[in-house]
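To the wet lab folks,

You asked to see what we're planning to order before we commit. Fair enough. Below is the target structure as tokens, and below that is the sequence we designed to fit it. If anything looks off to you, flag it before the synthesis order goes out.
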């Protein structure tokens, strides 16, 4: 149960500067400014003789409530939707109407994340990711910040820069952040089940984890199995669980035979829609499998829509 927030019980007189509200709420100033800029959820005032923001008791109550919901597993976007929806008593009558947020320089944040990786600066990388997630959903942060930063590292490597360790460093940080959101996102209790993971031998699982997260947040019931799925174990599980769909990721060409073997055995079971993700593709020579498997592109958002449309026809 989420605690009811009665905003009408709190004074709206501007009294507290940023340092005071940070001390009282334990929410850092960059996150406060991000919430204010992106969602217009706070209403600080500026006095004529003072350029500093001044917050009210009501602002403090909102910040504490948002902090508690996020610590309980909600995203800031979900918490603010609840705050504005009227589900919380007295909120609908007191909260200001949403306004269009100012543009957030996501491209600049992608470059900053790339620079943090080059410097192997964990604190800076985490700050950039957390601030970006405070102002935009993961479905926006991924294509606008995370993927471009990883591409910049790839381009640096192609340009003969020795950035292999930096790529591993940044991938590990991103993976941990995505994993935390995944475990904080509830799985739908019903509906067609989709299994997501990487084929046997495939260790690059960040893309498949992102896809699984996007699917779950889009309302698809998902079970995620990570990297290097043992084919015989997968086949046995499919026989027991009878999922509606399976999405396997294969990035390296040497793992294509494992994908073909898995798909061939699953086809024999029947009743399962096959999806393939990752950079590698199945050879046209195996026309039976190629005809049955739907290829997902590099855009995770488009992949989610494709999978949902297919599941809707099952």
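Sequence we intend to order:
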């Amino acid at each position: 149960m989420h605690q009811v927030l009665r905003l009408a019980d709190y004074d709206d007189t501007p009294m507290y500067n940023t340092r005071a509200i940070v001390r009282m709420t334990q929410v850092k100033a960059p996150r406060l400014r991000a919430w204010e800029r992106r969602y217009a959820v706070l209403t600080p005032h500026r006095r004529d003789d003072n350029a500093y923001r001044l917050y009210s008791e009501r602002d403090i109550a909102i910040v504490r409530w948002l902090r508690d919901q996020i610590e309980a597993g909600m995203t800031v976007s979900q918490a603010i939707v609840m705050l504005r929806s009227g589900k919380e008593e007295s909120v609908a009558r007191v909260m200001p109407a949403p306004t269009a947020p100012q543009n957030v320089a996501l491209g600049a944040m992608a470059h900053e994340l790339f620079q943090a990786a080059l410097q192997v600066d964990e604190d800076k990388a985490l700050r950039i990711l957390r601030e970006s997630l405070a102002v935009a959903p993961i479905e926006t942060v991924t294509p606008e910040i995370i993927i471009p930063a990883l591409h910049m590292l790839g381009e640096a490597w192609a340009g003969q820069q020795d950035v292999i360790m930096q790529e591993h460093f940044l991938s590990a940080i991103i993976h941990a952040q995505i994993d935390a959101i995944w475990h904080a996102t509830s799985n739908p209790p019903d509906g067609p089940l989709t299994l997501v993971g990487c084929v046997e031998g495939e260790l690059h699982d960040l893309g498949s984890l992102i896809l699984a997260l996007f699917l779950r947040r889009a309302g698809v019931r998902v079970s995620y199995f990570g990297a290097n799925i043992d084919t015989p174990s997968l086949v046995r599980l499919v026989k027991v669980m009878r999922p509606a769909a399976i999405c396997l990721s294969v990035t390296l060409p040497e793992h294509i035979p494992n994908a073909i073997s898995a798909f061939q055995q699953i086809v024999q079971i029947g009743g399962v829609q096959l999806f393939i993700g990752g950079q590698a593709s199945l050879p046209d020579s195996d026309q039976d499998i190629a005809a049955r498997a739907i290829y997902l592109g590099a855009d995770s958002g488009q992949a989610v829509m494709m999978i949902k449309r297919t599941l809707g026809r099952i």
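Structural context that might help your review: Residues 138-158 form the longest helix (21 residues). The mean pLDDT is 82.

Thanks,
Computational group
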